[in-house]
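Chapter review: from sequence to fold.
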Amino acid sequence: MQGWIDGFQKSIEYIEQNLSGVLDIDDIAAEAALSSFYYQRIFGALCGMTVGEYIRARRMTLAAQELVNSDTKVIDIALKYGYDSPDSFAKAFQRFHGVTPTQAKDWGANLRSFAPLHIKITLEGGNMLDYRIVEKAPFTIVGFKKRFNAETSYQEVPKFWNEWMSDRKGLKGMFGVCTDMDGKNFDYWIADLYIPWEEVPEGCSTYQIPGSLWAQFICKGPLPDSLQKVNTQIWSEWLPQLQGYTLAGNYSLEIYMPPADDPDDTVSYIWIPLKKSK
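The token string follows.
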């Protein structure tokens, strides 16, 4: 467990050391020995924000300190923290602090400060997390996919589901699948199991999920709360204790069962691909 936490903390320290330079999500994730796909999911679950939001908050904090405590020009601070122009920097600065960079120099200006993160996981017990590890052969899904930015996906993916539910377009919506993460973007599928002898609905495409070991977690209760709660437990409680296996594949699945009469009886699943540790 401690090695995993140390690796994640090392990635936070890497961010801190490079706030005035170029930060690439693949390089950040590598410090934690994770793919960018999993790093961003774990970061969001543990920290309650995206990696990009954290970086912006830290840069705005340091930029304000420099404005107040030095004679450095606004344009130089803007360039230092990755902004192409004083205007784009000023807009970001005002969104974060509530004042313009010029106003920040005034005596008594109210500024926000966001301290560096320190990852500390305390396992207190008492939380039940039902799962099993199984091996599955490759299978193919068929569905609608849409490209999302990792920074805004928590807001945009539910909208995708709402759009689909207004016209189900020949699908039951058995799966929600994240695939093809490239560091900043990923494909999200609303999909069913592909049946070769059945016609592919208009606008749909297919995707093969590789054979793998899977950790399958059951979620019980109203959606999306039950699924989000288990997702947070997976990354904050289960993963730090995982022994004998490591994460595999840049994809994950949500499986939805038919709606229950009582929302409290709703059952869904999260599947995470694994491989045995060497």
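Two observations follow directly from the output. The chain has two domains: 2-104, 131-276. The radius of gyration is 22 Å.
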